[in-house]
Amino acid sequence: MVTILDKTIPNELTELTVQQFEDITTIHADKELDVIEKHLKVFSLFGFTEDDFEDTSIEDFKMYVKQFNTLNNKIKIKKSIIIDGFKYTGFPGKQFILSVKDTKFIEKILNTKNRGYISEVLSVLFKRDDLTKTEHYAAAHIKHKAKLIKELKADIAIPYIVQISKKLSKSIKIQDETTSVMEGN
Amino acid sequence: MKLPQSWKEIDVYKFKEIRSTSHIEEMFTRDIEIISVLLDISPDDLEDYDIDVISKMIKDITFINSEPSKIFKKEIDNFIFKPLQKLTCGEFIDIEHYLSTDYMQNIGHIAAILYKKFKINEWDEVVYEPYTYSVKQRCEQFDEVCINDIYGIIPEYLNFRANFLENYSPLFQNTDDDDDDDDYRPKTSDEKKAIQEEKSAKKWSWERLIYNLCNDDLTKFHDITNLPLILTFNMLSMRKELNL
C-alpha cells in the first residue's frame, strides 16, 4: 500500500486486482494522453480527482508517482489457483510451457484486443482440472474464466505475462533473424 | 521429427500448401501450419508442444523464406517443355487465366500446359501433343514433382509475357486503360451503364477476340485457338495497322 494525499491506495501486485492492473496498462498505452494526464487518470482509478492535485507541486506529484510505481515484493509464478472450489492449472509439469494451442489463442487475443487482454490470456492458460480439452477452449468458458480472473490479485497474472512475453519475443527474434538471413542472401 | 532442409525435398503440392498459409495474419499460427505441412501431420498433432520447439524448427527451415530454384527442368518424365515462342493462342489464353487468379496456387496448371508429351516425326522434328487434354487432370501429375524442377517456368513465362505485351502494346492499350478505372465512381446512370458494358467487354475480351477472328463462325473457334500465338498477334497487328 502507498499513501498519497493522506489516502492509502493499493500499488503492489499482491494488492491490485487483475482488473485494476489492466486498467492501468490500458491508460499507459493510450497515445492520446501525455505523461501527466496518464498518471492523473491512473490515480482517478483509486478515487482521486484532478482537483485533489491542484495545490500539489510538480516535485510532490513526481514523488507520488514514484512511490506508486515502486514495487517491493518479488513474485513467483503460481502453477495453480483455486476459484469457487475449483482448481485451475496454468501449465503441466514443473516448468512453465506455452503450448502451441494456447499460443494460437493468445495470438488471436493479442491481435484483436486493445484492453482487457491480460485476464483473457490467463483464462486460456488456466484450465479447470475437472474439465476436458474441448471445454477449456470453448469461447463462453474462456469468457467466464476471464471474468473470474479479473477479480484475482495481479500477482497471479504478471509472472505469466512476463513468461509469455519472453517466449514470444524469443520466437519473434528467431523469425526476424531467419528473414534477414534470407534477405541477405 | 525430421524437417526438410531445402526446396529440393519439397514437391509442388507441398509448395502450394506452404504458400497458401500467407493469408494467415497471426505469425505463430502461420508457423505452426507450415511446420505441420512440412512434417506431413495435422496441426492438432503439434498442439501440446512448447512454442520454443516450434521456434527452433522455424530456425531450421529458413529456406521457406526464399524462392525455389529458377532453373527448371526441360524434361520431366515423358513430358518436355514447349518453347514459349511455339505457344498456341489457346494455350496462352489459359495460362493468362491461371496467372491472373493466383499463379502460386496454379503453378501445376501452368506446368500442365507448358509441358507436353511429344514424338519425333520422320523429319527428326519434335511434334507436341495437341492441346486437347484436361489441364485439371494433368496438373495432378505435376503435384508430385519437385518444386525446384518447375518453379522456374514462372519467371521464364513472365519474362516472355513482358516482351510479348511490349511487342504488341498497341493491341493491349485499351485493356490497360480499363485497369485505371477500377476505383472510379460513375456520376450518372448513363456513365454507370457505360462502365458496366466496359467491364463486360473486359470480362469476355479473349472470347470476343477469338469470336471476331472466327468472323462470327463459332465452328472455327478451335481452329483459331490452335493457331500459333505469334502468328495470330502478327495478323491482329496487321489488321489494326491497316484498319481492316
Structural summary, described in words:
The complex is a heterodimer of chains A (185) and B (244). Chain A has 185 residues and is mainly alpha-helical. Chain A folds into two domains: 2-69, no CATH class; 80-180, no CATH class. Chain A has eight helices and five strands. Chain A has helices at residues 18-29, 35-44, 58-69, 100-112, 117-125, 133-136, 139-150, 154-184; strands at 2-4, 7-9, 80-83, 86-89, 127-128. In chain A, a hairpin with a 2-residue loop joins strand 3 and strand 4. The longest helix of chain A has 31 residues, at 154-184. Chain B has 244 residues and is mainly alpha-helical. The mean pLDDT of chain B is 87. The radius of gyration of chain B is 22 Å and the shape is globular. Among the domains of chain B are: 75-158, no CATH class; 168-241, no CATH class. In chain B, the strands form two sheets. In chain B, strands 1-2-3 form a three-stranded antiparallel beta sheet. Chain B has 13 helices and five strands. At the A-B interface, helix 4 and helix 8 of A face helix 2 and helix 3 of B.
Largest sheet of chain B: 3 strands, antiparallel
The radius of gyration of chain A is 19 Å
Number of helices of chain B: 13
β content of chain B, as a range? 5-15%
N-to-C order of helices and strands of chain A: EEHHHEEHHEHHH
Please give the number of β-strands of chain A. 5
> In whole angstroms, how far apart are the ends of chain B?
67 Å
